[in-house]
Sequence to fold (709 residues):
Amino acid sequence: MEQDQKFDIVITGDSKWYELKLKEVFRYRDLIWLFVKRSFNAQYKQTVLGPLWYIINPLVTSFISTIIFGNIAGIKSDGVPYFLFYLVGYTLWNYFSTCVSATASTFTTNAGIMGKVYFPRLTMPISSVLYAAVNMIVVFVMSILAMIVYWLSGNPVHTNIYVLIIPVLMLQTAVLGLGVGIIISSLTTKYRDLVILVGFGLSLWMYLTPVVYPISEVPDSLRTIILLNPMSAIVQNYKYALLGVGAFEIGYWGVSIAITVLLFFAGVMLFNKVEKTFMDTV
Amino acid sequence: MSETVIKIEGLKKQYRLGTIGGGTLTADLQSWWARKRGKEDPNTEIGTDMSKVGETFYALNGINLEVHKGEALGIIGANGAGKSTLLKLLCRVTAPSEGTIKMSGRIASMLEVGTGFHPELTGRENIYMNGAILGMTRAEIDSKIEEIIDFSECRQFIDTPVKRYSSGMYVKLAFAVAAHLDAEIMIMDEVLAVGDVKFQQKCLGKMGNAASNEGKTVLYVSHNMSTIRQLCNRCIVLEHGKIVFDGDVDKAIAVYLGIQKGEFKSHYLFSDTVRPSLEHGGKIFAEELRFLNNSTYFVQNEPVEVEVKWKANEEVRRVGILFMICTLDDKTIGFFQSDKLIDNRAGKEYSVKVQMDISSLMEGDYYTYLDIISLNEFGTHVGLDRPVEKIFFSVRRSKEYDGIIWNNNALGHVEFPRIETVNCREM
Fold:
């Protein structure tokens, strides 16, 4: 009769590839939220400017880009004021790159706690992605404010109905960043130097994405290659939605979404495979 | 029989010996290429025995175990016996190589307290953090936060970042969180080693209560036999990844301490036994000890007869025997000393028969060392020989014992002579 007893948890050596365990992650949503809060609280404790850094960082980056890419290199911006062009261009790109680099080191930086207690490991990268969203939202609000300022000072700013898809673009960026990040984090348990590669890879990737240049400036021969990069369609469509420059790349966006979904599920499966025994190899 | 909450079948955990990979992709490819061509791996350390690399090691080798609801199970074993690996598998920190573990109920693991504490956050924030990591929801923590703070004895500092805490406070806070988790299964790995004695007792009390009154299941690993004895009602002994004993706590401790299956030796030869120092065994050399009862199970009211043989290499005056009696968890509870001192002559062998009255020693397992000493007229003694081998024996209650039911934890191990009622009259 004991045989028939139901057990809640069954642990075995072999894992199934199709197990996503997303339901369990949902059950630990309080934990995700606390991880986000922890990062937020811990980041700017004992700093002079505190959360002001959320504003200073993008301002400085956009300002430097205005000088280097705009004024010195003279790259065109489809008629949009340089500063606004870069601020908008960086918004989603920076979000993506923060997601990737923050989640890429999930296993290595949290080995201490993960070696002691069980919780769904996926909560860690998810909370990194959510935390990075804070930063992105701040930059988004700043772009809106900057647009209002430019509009008041007589600059033409053409926002259009496509602003409604902006939340979708943000979500897609998060999912793509998470997918890429957890694939890398699964591989870094064995090969630590992949983390260094992430730094190089991301800066290279940025130049393959229309962040600091408009897609209209890309020669036709390269355009297809650049647009096949899933981030390109996202950044381009975001710029179009907010600033009304360039074109709305619907076809390439479809490809981009397909790649995003594919990378995300591949990432989660790989992650679940690795999380079971990574303590033995990390 | 109550409900089974943990069922382990054929559990194995395998580790590979030697370095796992070079750590970089290039190094791994290099090693792989070298092996392909039958050459020596350029990434192994010089002098590594190549036949050993790639060999596997079973940290756990076929564990079968069932734990029932309300049990407090102690897990003991030497370093490397697989205790921590077992707990890690139970806590799902890593996955088994073979076999299954089935569990019902929530698990609170305390493999190391304070995991998930962030130094920048305050005590209160960390309670929420740690609780969530252990699987509590915010509402649950809300309802218990006051109780947790009280238990941790850190109320005064609860809104200070934990990086300013002393290590003791840190541990107390962490334990308080874990102990208040409403888990059906609690897994602890020597967490009580830190914290002061008072707090340790409080924790053990809390755990013991959880097991006996609240029907929770406790799994506890420790090298501290007295806490095992205090907390657990069942104990397993692990050796080389296998369970070698499962059952009564006292027996398990006896097995762990090196006695096979509870059979105690009644004859000891000390010619090859290690001595604690170079001086020991010089003037006097102990050769053997024999329990003349031919058993090591004694009943309280029977005297224990022991024969000790030694050789005197030099002339020593006033030689006697000293037996320190210790419990299996290394508490010294008293001693026996010779009533008569013997003057030894050089080159002679001595055989001494002694008799000890153990009527005041209560039921339980004990060990002692044979200690040969010389005692001068002023009462100071010099150790002459002391073979480092524990001599185990067991005391059982006599049929005539009419006192209270004995509990070693509460009452110790020695009963003093009964209170003499001098006079009693009805008033």
About this structure: The two ends of chain A are 42 Å apart (CA to CA).
